[in-house]
Write a structure and sequence with these properties.
With 304 residues, this protein is α/β, with parallel strands linked by helices. The protein has ten helices and twelve strands. 31% of the residues lie in helices and 21% in strands. β5, α5 and β6 form a beta-alpha-beta unit.
């Protein structure tokens, strides 16, 4: 019996800066794939404007017509009045649910009695926080990527029965956000005149240690893991109670990642078989330490 069924598959927001045509082509391709939920919008940097709100709404309507549940994501770090105004415009849309990645979005949606998804950057670490946000209108929460399956079990024990749980299941882990832009700094450019250099790195800018090991990825103001997390390499607990599995988009191979996860959730392949398929699409290799309660970069336990 597959312990994950009937978990839905979600495609998280694109975390990188891709050109307009690349984004539009990517989402056209996603319409035909076995993913149930699609998150749209910019969550990292407000300077990334390949698509505006009306463009995102157009993509959302097309995906909705293809049978997908669409969620509009918001910025994880609000730093300016202009960003707050954009956030309010997104939240004023009544067609699609919102993923709140900042408490400003939560306050706005609660005030207007709108249901929402609590994104991973809301930092929900205990059932008390989860309960407060559920009363504010949260219908689904995304577990922070650094928490373990044991922590999840503890939070779930106090979770309202009508709140669904979503887990980051595949991709480079978003580890931190900063007011500074690391990509601009790498090119000796000020943040306010960054020239959108992150367009040069469709999967982020890879950093190595002095002994030439892949270590971190710079993605504008966001820092990611170099290794890709995959729940297929670690999930062996039948009572994890995961309702939604989130796959984070990458520049190449996202379609094959989705298909591998679809086979795994349906029980037509094992976790090891799925991981073997996925490793070829991981630029720097696999990790699963956080989920197992180990060091985040741990890979040994992931493949045992």
């Amino acid at each position: 019996m597959n312990m994950l069924q009937p978990a839905d598959l979600a495609l998280g927001p694109v975390l990188y800066h891709w050109p307009r045509e690349t984004l539009l082509r990517f989402y056209r391709d996603m319409a035909d794939l076995p993913v149930d939920i699609v998150y749209l919008g910019e969550t990292v940097c407000s300077k990334r404007r390949s698509l505006g709100l009306e463009d995102w709404l157009g993509v959302a309507r097309e995906l909705s017509q293809a049978g997908k549940q669409v969620v509009l994501s918001t910025l994880a770090l609000i730093e300016a009045d202009s960003e707050l105004r954009t956030l309010q415009r997104i939240c004023q849309n009544t067609e699609f649910m919102i993923e709140a990645n900042d408490m400003a979005a939560v306050h706005y949606l609660e005030a207007h009695q709108r249901p929402f998804v609590g994104g991973p950057t809301l930092n929900i670490y205990n059932p008390y926080s989860l309960g407060i946000l559920a009363r504010a209108g949260m219908q689904r929460w995304v577990m922070p990527v650094e928490l373990s399956r044991q922590t999840l079990a503890g939070i779930r024990a106090g979770c309202p029965s009508d709140v669904r749980t979503e887990v980051f299941a595949y991709g480079r882990l978003p580890l931190a956000y900063s007011a500074r832009c690391f990509t601009a700094r790498t090119h000796n450019l000020p943040k306010d005149d960054c020239r959108l250099r992150c367009l040069d790195d469709p999967d982020g800018l890879l950093l190595h240690t002095r002994d030439h090991q892949d270590f971190l990825v710079l993605n504008g103001i966001q820092t990611q893991s170099a290794l890709s997390f995959s729940l297929t390499a670690a999930q062996d607990t039948p009572d994890a109670h995961i309702d939604v599995l989130r796959i984070s988009p990458q520049a190449h191979g996202t379609d094959r990642v989705i298909r591998a996860f679809d086979q795994w959730r349906r029980g037509t392949c094992s976790g090891k078989e799925a991981t073997d398929k996925l490793v070829t699409h991981m630029p720097s290799g696999v990790c699963s330490g956080y989920w197992l309660g180990e060091a985040g970069m741990s890979t040994g336990a992931a493949l045992r």
